[in-house]
Amino acid sequence: MSTTGTVLASTPTQRLLGKVALVTGGASGIGESIVRLFHIHGAKICIADVQDNLGKQVCQSLGDEANVVFVHCDVTVEDDVSHAVDFTVGKFGTLHIIVNNAGISGSPCSDIRNADLSEFDKVFSVNTKGVFHGMKHAARIMIPKKKGSIISLCSVASAIGGLGPHAYTGSKYAVLGLTKNVAAELGKHAIRVNCVSPYGVATGLALAHLPEDERTDDALVSFRDFTGRMANLQGVELTTHDVANAVLFLASDDAKYISGENLMVDGGFTSANHSLQVFR
Ligand SMILES: NC(=O)c1ccc[n+]([C@@H]2O[C@H](COP(=O)([O-])OP(=O)(O)OC[C@H]3O[C@@H](n4cnc5c(N)ncnc54)[C@H](O)[C@@H]3O)[C@@H](O)[C@H]2O)c1
């Protein structure tokens, strides 16, 4: 068989046809875009989120109850994640892909002496322990099948300091560490483990640090202006769809030999430092 023939055969229009995926935090933001893109690409999807109404609305809006379902799941609770995995397998027969996307930013704190350790625990609980729960329970299904793709949402804050609160940055470096370590364990079972690290995207998370009455459209516009000005790639705005495309790539057979990677979706932000103004 020619190599070219293999490549052509592995790029169907629907890149996830026949695949079953579980997406945590799939009720809004980046997770919702991942759900919608996976659906276009033929996957059967279970959305796992704490926002029941929003999650159910995403399912209804897709109008495909047979292939897109919702389950309530708080990723900080191991039993919830275990149940979400079993629920997905119960509905669709197996699990090929898990996207550990649920995450929170935590409150900003510019002075470490005032750091609130309960806030620190909360951020690690969702962003790191939540991801590990997903990895553990997905592996439970994937190991006997000898295949699977585990993808976690990381961040540019997993590559350099100074981009977010300490707990957020620490939790995302930990996601990267877990990704590499779990990839090392699960390689022998042909299970791929990767993460995706976006630059700032205008979602609820981007405004979560503001009081509720300040989370307005104007605040989103300010966030987009700011991230646009600070970006390396100028004149191109990062959207949730762009992040979903990177996740789709890692989920699909197009990435069949990629594991242990942190795919940066940051337009070069973490590889270029413009503070010396050499090119600006
Ligand atoms: N938006 C950005 O700028 C950005 C940048 C880099 C990385 N990320 C990462 O991308 C991921 C998604 O972020 P987003 O911007 O879409 O955020 P978002 O706030 O828009 O959506 C997060 C989703 O996760 C859900 N969620 C929160 N806590 C949960 C829990 N305990 N259990 C289950 N679900 C829970 C929320 O209900 C929500 O639907 C996060 O891991 C985030 O850290 C976001």
TrEMBL record:
Gene3D superfamilies: NAD(P)-binding Rossmann-like Domain
Keywords associated with the record: Oxidoreductase
Database matches in Pfam families: adh_short_C2
BP GO terms, sorted: abscisic acid biosynthetic process
Domain of life the protein comes from: Eukaryota
An MF annotation (GO) of this entry: xanthoxin dehydrogenase (NAD+) activity
Matches recorded under InterPro entries: ABA2-like, NAD(P)-bd_dom_sf, SDR_fam
A single cellular component GO annotation: cytosol
Similarity remark: Belongs to the short-chain dehydrogenases/reductases (SDR) family.
PANTHER family: SHORT-CHAIN DEHYDROGENASE REDUCTASE, SHORT-CHAIN DEHYDROGENASE_REDUCTASE FAMILY PROTEIN
The protein, known as: Xanthoxin dehydrogenase
